[in-house]
Design brief:
Order of helices and strands of chain A: HHEEHHHHHHHHHH
Radius of gyration of chain B: 24 Å
Helix content of chain B: 25-40%
Order of helices and strands of chain B: HEHEHEEEHEHEHEEEHEHH
Mean pLDDT of chain A: 89
Distance between the termini of chain B: 65 Å
Structural class of chain B: alpha/beta
Low-confidence stretches of chain B: 21-26
Number of domains of chain A: 2
Distance between the termini of chain A: 44 Å
Largest sheet of chain A: 2 strands, antiparallel
Oligomer: heterodimer
Shape of chain B: elongated
CATH class of the largest domain in chain A: Mainly Alpha
Structural class of chain A: mainly alpha
Mean pLDDT of chain B: 86
Shape of chain A: globular
CATH architecture of the largest domain in chain A: Orthogonal Bundle
């Protein structure tokens, strides 16, 4: 009796340590990047940093360096939204097909294929984009390395996340819902669109938010295909410079205030992710209540 | 008993003599040397290290990248024995001991098939500064120029800026619309795939996928760089914190010897001897 009690208490303690460790790591990361970014915020000033449109850490001649990241913020927002616009309809369509409509053997092939896509390293997506997508975009116009190429590659990268989580949540909708709708004379499309999808909406929202998180943080693939120019993009065919690849591109050579400014971009990126996840939590709660 | 004792002594003496001969003639070096820094120097340093290790099997030379700034910091705080720099040290950087390893020309490259085969230095400056935006203004086809540069902080970019964008004064900044890549290989890849792109890479990276333009009528060749007629040439340095001693000195001496400089020339860099 006493032994069982001890095992129970002991394992509870162990689990508590595991849980605290992950929170501690998160806290350590937050404190570390914040602390490393402070010199940059102090020297540049928050507003100049966030709203400045010129990023030139090592200017030629006697010009003082400038650290404005508005172009990068706009780049991150545009490339993420663009990727979602492509990935949401495609991903949802594929999820519906996999969950409800595909013949068994078809699903048997498609499902593992989608799961495999999730595991492909991002740099591979970038390389494929560089040799496949970029020349195609170049034929339409511009230098090829562009917002459009970035959006297409990023959409392909978040598609598997959107598909697999949406499919799970569509599958989790109780059978009675479908049977009830069909019994009332609804067609299978009406059943899916009016009954099943609304019932699965919190899971679908989760898939979108997770995809968004991956899109905001993607660096390696973007460095290869998006062009990384420092000017504000005027069209989809222009290059852009999102925040995450903006950090990855320059860390190798950065020192002093330049390095600190890169950490400051990391803080902004961190806030982006926190906001996205907070929205997700609110959405889930509302979904669960409904 | 006595005879066998004699034999043992004889054999021992033989071993002793042999081992002394081995020590005397080999004077075998052993130990490790670490190097880090400029990615322009890296492929060259790797070849020099391979050659050196082939000659002295007891020595392990580790070559790393990271960029000129990393090389300077690392050698200054003692993380590595030798740093590599592909530009002059700036006044606010630690003043280390420089060993001129080679010189390197920076080539202005386009895709083979581009009708333009030469530019003036002023045209190069105007193209990268965003003043000339169309190939037809420099004798090419009527199409926008896609400028490809290295990222901020890169030794190749800094050297290019100092030699092209900042001369003559006042300095012109590289256009913000320029595409950025974070390696010589990346720039070569983009330029080699785009008929309307222009970029700059180190001489050592030139191959058949890109065409090097002549500048002010002077071909981008190692001979022209060596004779200082080609206008965009920069020094490549090995850096040490203090005057090198021991193994590090041996390695640097090897790199600067005729044998090491032959490797430098073979790789398309400009030898200093």
């Amino acid at each position: 009796m006493r032994k069982r009690y001890l095992i129970d208490r002991g394992s509870r303690g162990l689990l508590l340590i595991c849980a605290t460790a992950s929170v501690a790591v998160l806290l350590a990361i937050a404190v570390f990047i914040l602390q490393r970014s402070l010199p940059a915020f102090g020297e540049i000033g928050l507003l100049d940093f966030l709203l400045g449109t010129k990023w030139d850490p090592n200017p030629v001649g006697d010009t003082p360096p400038s650290f404005g990241i508005l172009v990068m913020i706009v780049g991150t927002v545009l490339v993420t939204l663009g990727a979602l616009v492509i990935a949401i309809p495609l991903g949802l369509g594929c999820a519906v097909l996999l969950a409800d409509m595909a013949p068994h053997h078809f699903r048997q092939i498609l499902r593992p294929a989608v799961e495999l896509l999730t595991g492909i390293p991002s740099v591979v997506y970038g390389l494929v984009g560089l040799v496949l997508i970029v020349p195609l975009v170049r034929q339409i116009g511009g230098p090829g390395l562009s917002l459009a190429a970035g959006i297409i590659v990023l959409a392909a990268m978040i598609l598997p996340t959107v598909i697999s989580i949406s499919e799970d949540s569509i599958r989790a909708v109780p059978r009675i819902y479908r049977e009830g709708a069909l019994a009332l004379g609804a067609t299978s499309w009406q059943t899916m669109w009016r009954v099943v999808l609304p019932a699965a909406r919190s899971g679908i929202a989760a898939s979108i938010v997770l995809g968004m998180g991956r899109a905001v943080g993607e660096a390696m693939a973007m460095v290869l295909v998006i062009g990384m120019a420092k000017a504000m993009p005027n069209s989809l065919l222009d290059p852009a410079r999102p925040m995450a690849p903006g950090i990855a591109l320059e860390t190798g050579y950065a020192g002093g205030i330049h390095l600190s400014a890169l950490f400051a971009i990391g803080v902004v990126l961190f806030l982006f992710i926190v906001i996205i996840n907070s929205i997700a939590i609110v959405v889930f709660k509302r979904g669960a209540r409904a | 008993m006595k005879a066998s004792m004699k034999w043992v002594l004889l054999v021992l003496a033989g071993i002793l003599a042999l081992s002394m001969v081995a020590v005397g003639c080999g004077r075998e070096l052993s130990g490790t040397i670490t190097e880090a820094g400029s990615t322009t120097v890296q492929p060259l340093a790797e070849l020099l290290a391979d050659e050196y290790m082939a000659k002295h099997s007891g020595v392990q030379v580790t070559i790393g990248g990271g960029g000129t700034s990393v090389g300077i910091t690392s050698v200054n705080n003692g993380t590595v024995d030798i740093g590599a720099a592909s530009r002059e040290l700036k006044s606010d950087e630690p003043q280390l001991v420089k060993h001129l390893l080679a010189k390197d020309g920076i080539a202005i490259v386009v895709k083979p098939g581009n009708p333009v085969s030469g530019l003036t230095k002023t045209q190069v400056r105007d193209i990268f500064g965003g003043v000339i935006k169309n190939w037809k203004d420099v004798g090419g086809s009527d199409h926008a120029i896609n400028v490809v540069v290295r990222e901020s902080g890169s030794g190749t970019r800094t050297a290019f800026e100092e030699m092209v964008m900042a001369k003559p004064e006042p300095a012109v900044a590289i256009a913000s619309t320029a595409l950025e890549q974070n390696s010589n290989g990346g720039v070569k890849q983009v330029v080699g795939g785009d008929s309307y792109a222009i970029g700059f890479i180190s001489f050592g990276y030139i191959d058949s996928t890109v065409k090097a333009l002549s500048i002010d009528g002077i071909e981008a060749t190692a001979e022209n760089a060596k004779s200082d007629t080609y206008p965009i040439v920069r020094p490549l340095y090995f850096l040490t914190k203090e005057a090198p001693t021991g193994l590090v000195k041996e390695f640097i001496d090897f790199c600067l010897s005729d044998e090491g400089q032959a490797i430098v020339a073979d790789e398309g860099y400009v030898s200093i001897s």
